Amino acid sequence: MADKPEGGGFDEARGGFAADALTSVFAAYEFACAFTGHDLRMEATADPRGYLLNLSGNPLSEDCTMLVPAVLDAIHAFERGYIAIGPRYNFLVDLEFIDPEFLERLNPIGRLRVPFDTAFHPAQSALTPHLIAFSTGRRQRS
């Protein structure tokens, strides 16, 4: 009978890497929503994964270029294709479907707030397919 690995297979969930990686993403964005600038310190402490837009589609991804701190309205709008992010991190919005109150809260310069450290900038390779789907009208409507 083979020995079981120590930790029973849940080491990833208990390990420090996930918490440290998520905290570093929030810190790079100064604990603010990249879409609105809303302070996410309380949310980052209570439920860090719940306030990160995951561009990869892989819920376990900890790649900092695939994670963007965001309020729930931004995550909802992005995932449903009501908002897309262009090549210069500019917003493209579907005015027919986006919540008008959320639209008013978006960064007034019309683009994502990105950190000074380019290592944390959202990966263009993840944004491009979403942008193409947005521009061709292939987005989820719910």
Structure, described:
- The chain is 35% helix and 8% strand.
- It has 142 residues and is mostly helical.
- It has one domain.
- It has a two-stranded antiparallel sheet. A two-stranded antiparallel ribbon has the order 3-4.
- A hairpin with a 5-residue loop joins β3 and β4 (91-93).
- The model is unreliable at 7-17 (pLDDT under 50).
Distance between the termini: 51 Å
* Rg, alpha carbons: 17 Å
Q: How do the strands line up in the largest sheet?
A: 1-2
Summarize the amount of helix as a percent range: 25-40%
> Count of helical segments?
6
Beta-strand percentage range:
5-15%
Structural class: mainly alpha
The geometry reads as globular
If you average the pLDDT, what whole number results? 85
Oligomer: single chain
Largest sheet: 2 strands, antiparallel
Low-confidence stretches: 7-17
Order of helices and strands: HHHEEHEEHH
Number of domains: 1
Strand element count: 4
Q: Brief overview, please?
A:
The longest helix is centred in the first third of the chain and has 13 residues, at 16-28.
What topology does this entry show?
Blueprint: H1 11-14, H2 16-28, H3 41-46, E1 52-54, E2 67-69, H4 72-79, E3 83-85, E4 91-93, H5 100-105, H6 124-135
Antiparallel strand pairs: 1-2, 3-4
